[in-house]
Amino acid sequence: MNDNTSTTNRNAPSSDVEKQHGLISAENGSSPSPPIEDAQQQSSPPDGRVKGLLKTFERTLLRYNIEARGVQRVLPEDRHDLSRLGFTQIMLLWISINLEAVVIALGFLGPIVYYLPFMDSCLLGVFGSIVGATPVAYIATFGPRSGNRTMILTRFITGWYPSKLIVVLTLIIFMGYILIDAVVGGQILSAVADGRLSVIVGIVIVCAITWVVSTFGYILSILSGVAGQNFDLYGNPSAGLSSNVIAGNRLSFFSLCLAAQITYAQGAADFFVYYPVNASRTKVFISTLAGLTLSSTFALVVGIGLGSGTFTNPDWAAAYEVSQGALIVEAFKPLGSFGSFCSVIVALSLIGNMVAPTYASGIDFQALGHMWENVPRIFWNTLALVIPMICAITGRGHLAEIFTNFLALMGYWVSIWIAIFLEEHLIFRKWLGRGWKWEDWNDRTRLPLGVAALIAFIVGWVGSILCMAQVWYVGPLAALISEYGGDMGNYVGFAWAGLVYPPLRWLELKKFGR
Known about the structure:
The protein is an all-alpha fold.
């Protein structure tokens, strides 16, 4: 494939890349990287005192070896050496992000909300996760080959101005997941303390730690061991339901597990832009797919088991009525004080899931334009954490439930975006030989106008709305399955956008040449 990317690969020493090479020019991604002071002078920074403060702040970040590079493309000569552990680190990264309490809580929904037996829930959850993780793994391979972040890649698909809509929707998804993680973490810490620690304080603790560090928990092995005897492996919560309702519930739970993984696609390339251009795409793909699939499978099966146990264990059922976090704490109770310690570790596992969207959000804010790009990324990272924290505190009783439904709606557009991305790459860039000119990342005159992508995006949205099935709305086509519907929004949105994009893009290229 012709990526039209320089194959030069002079690996920088192991010390901070930005400290040695500076940030690259905002106007020309292919030129050598000037020092930070020069880069800011070449762009359009704020005037006066604000400009001086920002420059001083970025110099301070570099002095303490804090990554200062934001949305700028990472040139081939600025990449790190790829050690033998490089691809193992990719898998561990995704495991650390995905092996956490919210995925466990997602597993609750199979038996409790959709009335599916244990085995049905496990099969649907595992295969839904695999399908959802596959496009994420493919998007991740574009990090090393392009050196561009995921939302910058979107500029090559949708053009300069339509890409801003995608960035805003991505920020909503990322900050929404941060909010849900914060609320669940606060609930767990409050339940461990028997209510003596308020959920508000728990939320603040989780968010404060997230600002500094990422972690993940091996403690789920202990949870599955101590709670496994209460899993209802052979019960059938769907007994008495019609076959149409069962089919719709199966489809909806499969779609929910798929959506939980597919939304990682919006930041999949961000974490691998420092990998060399010649990094094996196959290994990046397999490492990402394995990390996401293994972690989600383990956490989902534990969550499904806990959910099934609420039908046979009154204490678990009562705990679930309090909160999802309380059910996890109740499952650890046979271990006494050690169980409380394990519950805290599970709460802290949420930090790993919060760090990734917080990191990506800081970059995505800068992708909104030159003015946003001039603000140091650490400011946007902080804002991306503070906003969900405030929302979580003020609406901790119901906001998480609202956002769960809202984020399911947001997840539909990711499928649409993936359809457009794949067709642009496979048909127009690869098959027709147009290739990618990654150095054009910040030149709006060389990027597509985005008319074809925008129209395809809207058409896909219409299909998703007609076929969606959520608690608060069931689309007319989804309602044909049963009275509760069956969620087909991801698949129909993907298909409709995929049908209309190629002819529209062909017309756009014929008329405008880009």
